[in-house]
Amino acid sequence: MPVVPDQSIRTILNHPNVKAVIGDINQEQQERLNYKPPICSVFTNKYAILENVDGYRFEIDKETEKQLPSLIHNRVQKVLGTDSPGADIKERYTKPRKIGIVFSGGPAPGGHNVIAGLFDAATKANPQNVIYGFLLGPDGIIENETIKLTKELIDRYRNLGGFTMIKTGRTKIDTQAKMALSRQNCKNLGLDAIVIVGGDDSNTNAAFLAQEMLADGVQVIGVPKTIDGDIQVRDADGQVLCAISFGFHTAARSFAKEISNLCTDSSSDVKYWHICKVMGRVASHLALEVALQTHANMTLIGEDLADYVDPKRIEEAEKAGTIDYTAYGMTLRHLSRVICDGIVRRAAVGKNYGVVVIPEGVLEFINEIQIFITKLNVIIAEYNETHDATFHKTFPLLEDKLDYLRRLARRSREENSIPVWNTRDDDLFNDIPEFFQEGLLMERDSHGNFPFSQVETDKIIMGLVKDYLHILKDKGLYKIGIHRDYYAKIMKSNSLNPDTYGPILFKNYHNQEEFLHVDQAIISVKTLKQALVNGQLMKENEKIPAAVEKVYKKSVPDFKTQIHFYGYDGRGSDPSQFDCNYTYNLGLTVFALIANGATGQMAAIKNLEKDFSQWEPIGIPIAPLMRLEERKAKLTLVLEKSLVDTDSIAFQVVKAMREKWLAASPEEDHYRKPGPIRFTGKSEEDRPITLVLNALTDEFDLNP
Ligand code: FBP
User: Does 19 reside within a domain?
Assistant: First the structure.
């Protein structure tokens, strides 16, 4: 290849056609940057005011009342628009302000638009208003790392994904020292308010900061962010205040696009089972939405597995007049059996391929694993509290950790106490594969959460599936169905009479099923020969007819998998229009709350499940939503995570469609193709399918 001289490459790079295609910003991105999200009608007025709304009820936790006395009686607030408020309101609304904003936890598509909405509303109210971005998450508040957010900077990120503008982090402001530094830094900056864009733990943190900073006159507002979709707020009577956190729709759409492509690929080369783990640390909302978007063959929903009881074993126990406690609660073994059942049934109709969706947090709902996680959480937290160095620093290697657990088990025997870790736990733990032991012993995050994304959940489950499929194969129960026409064609083209061999080869030859199933006893070429000899179709010393052997070999399944993880990719995706519009209006709502003196409130949009014209910006009180939960082995006040409601219409629809989407029948698969997130044009859906379905709740009574 001739070397291009420097001079020529410079000329090439300056060519307008080259410039047009190699620039950092492509046309799609330019369209995103230019896009102006529609605004809720209340924001078309010059001023936004707040009105306390009656008719919502919360069950207040005594402990929250004690710890957050100034916020516990906060009410739901509705944002209203006005052009002519009273002079005092006008003055308060337009007074110059300094506001700090921070991202906390994992990125979620739409975060930049929260900043853009806040900035636009703040500078519209008073061009002197200043917005600071705390860098790298809550560490930015503790360490006073900030940048002043300018219009130029914000304009570079409008409608774009990630938290790139100011980055994020997972630090929790959970000690007096960190709290004191945060207060001091906010005072030094002269802040009027801080906005915490985060998940359940970060919004919990927002409420505590709000209480703490009340004395300094610094307001704190939370924003419901997380792709996991587990911030969904209802009042005690089930009235929906926040149907979903931002970022969920984009992540689900992004995963669904990839998974739907795998459905297409897998049903084209018909040789792989694709195992897709999708993010969602605990709740399975993302997996549920992906199921609705793609109609993948099998989707596990953790919350559904948690409800599992083995009816057969209960019945047997009842007959025997005993109680079988192990019949309650899903086990990994049973789960692998459920998956195998689907695989075997599809194979029987010639489909030795398919797509399984596994939620990242599924292990949380498997009783036996949950017990390990809880026990190890306690052990690690207790160790960290009573020693100078942390558990993970002291025991960096798996062997060291196991040795510590062994010592605990031994001590439990000697002391005859009721220990967290006993010999039985130790024996069971030693039975699980090393990579899984390592996973279960991984360092918890600053909130004490178990890092599910780091655990090879799919490998654990699929390991068991593969083992069991081997057993089924050896028993002659896992076979690929042979199409009747194919069988007849092969036999005839080899001048063999299909009807002569059919009844010996297949157990269902005489019924009219489309797919023929090789007899259970035929599990090898040897047993095939035996069957043919016994059926007097050949002699012991003869060779099996090639066509017959070919048909048999076609019935022998090779279970091949491809493992995928969908998480960080979807989290970094550019937001869907739903998330762009949602987050921009959240930003406007944040300013309306701040400008009207609110604190300890979470900005939200009511009626997200309805048409945009019905969206209602509101402030939700965070404190009344808090519950005591065990974190790092201590009862701690947190915002309750919202799990998939197995009574919800969305789940019930998925459950009802399970058999159809498994498609263990000769008909075509029922895959749905959502396609990529489309920013322009009209064909993109305007809200998550889960929301569309659950919005019908009032129309149907599922539990009459
Ligand atoms: P947030 O709750 O902070 O939004 O993060 C959720 C999540 O995306 C989970 O789905 C996933 O388990 C986790 O973050 C991964 O965390 P990390 O970024 O620390 O690997």
Answer: no
